[in-house]
User: Fold this.
Amino acid sequence: MRPELEVIEGWVNSKAHVLDLGCGDGSLLQHLRSAKQTTGYGLESDENNILECVRANVNVLEQDLNKGLGNFKEQSFDVVIMTQALQEIRHPHEILRDMLRIGKEGIVTFPNFGFWRNRSYLALKGRMPMSKSLPHHWYDTPNIHLCTFKDFEALCYRQGLRIVDRTVVDANYRDSLAMRIMPNLFGSTALYRITKEGNS
Amino acid sequence: MQNTSPFPENSVGLVKSQSLRVDTAIKLQCGQNLSHYDLAYETYGTLNDSKSNAVLICHALSGNQHAAGYHHVDDKRPGWWDLCIGPGKAIDTNHLFVVCPNNIGGCHGSVGPTTLNIETSHPYGPDFPIVTVKDWVHSQAQLADHFDILQWAAVVGGSLGGMQALQWAIDLPHRIRHALVIASAPKLSAQNIAFNEIARQAIMSDPDFHNGHYYGERSYPKRGLILARMLGHVTYLSDHAMRLKFGRELKKGHLSFDYDAEFQVESYLRYQGEIFSENFDANTYLLMTKALDYFDPAAEYNGNLVGAVSQALCKFMVISFTTDWRFAPNRSEEIVNALLQAKKTVSYAKIDAPQGHDSFLLDIPRYKNLFSAYMANIILEANKLNQEKRNAS
Assistant:
């Protein structure tokens, strides 16, 4: 099991109603369904992923995240999850706000542009960083809104979102002391559990 | 062994239309009763011991019970949904028992305007009561009873057929495990009703209509039917599909400065209208368009579609097609959003296809793969239920 799934599983209550934004082949929802008896849906726009979800009996809805989540009602989900998609969204701040409009809690994971390897790549080579978690060239990358942990946390603060929990892992989803002390330098992937200020 | 069948291997082959005499009276939504009536239907595949593998196919506006296979060895074309029904196809008759009725009000064997009214010893004609999607669902339930099918594994339909699947889910929630609602809508828009009204006017203003009592006459409203079908056909295709198929191609290659069918598209529409007018009853066409106009399952729930679909217990698969402008994707999404709010189990796909509303009848790889994948899980479930029943007894 991907350690990312393990962390997320720990953050989702059993029988929760879950919305997974960019659910891929549905493996996260499948996992949560069997581990936590969750219900809910995945949103996906890739036709092969949609087919895989249908095969796996995962509820999937063909929907483009860039067109917003206006079709979902206020507080209609216990948790809204978005793994490794924030950096590909046209308006990340709007989707974050929407996630916590329709969900009581949000879980967001994304690659950390402030990871030391990215920093040194840019500093030493003078070129846009490429790595295991950032495998694309600058011109063909789907990642149009890369950010660092600090950037993300600043955005949460501005939007009145509260960080309930944060875990940082490296490209192999391992945890280390260095990452715990200086996450923005040593963590390559972040997992955030957020809620609206005032929500307990 | 050599294949001696004259039909393709994945065809259900030679089939026969059957008829069920229903002696239980049905109270129609309009208030009238039918004390007894005939339902024409076809079946494909074999019903299993626990009757867990039965699928109901609901036809659309101009459809009938002949959904798959051939009536005669020399039939040029198979049933209307042969592409999706047969051994190894999306609705796999190696595993599923498929039932497709002709809806009441129809003109292919079920009770309808062409049926003799015993009280007057004339065909009902325009006096046949206006039937609704709800009435169809309740008459189709008689067919389920006839086969001792307590619960359909799935009710499947495109367009008006999809509306029946949705109505089944709402009205008889315990009797359906899956609803497949394809290229459909939760109710008609003003534009949809407008097209239907033009079709009806085309028929009713035909001098041969005789107020619907044309059966004893020498002629019938053929021209009206042709016009109605031509109009309907335009709404089934997309602008793109028509461009691809006909462009501005001229039959003779040059303008002839008269009113003959010059452009290919004109001749195609005339031909389609002509064929249709020979095989369809004008009064039935009027009835079917009315059933479409009246369809609005939310109406019984104060106009609240979420309230309506909250009744459902089944799982849903909703499919739309990008270039369908008769029932555009956003109409399917209205259904999906209501199901979401009601926290129902639903999947939704918007198939990118250039063919317009007709797409649901056509060979579109992504559509077929998705349809097959969804049905494959229904087969697994049906087999599992059958096994459980077997173990229990």
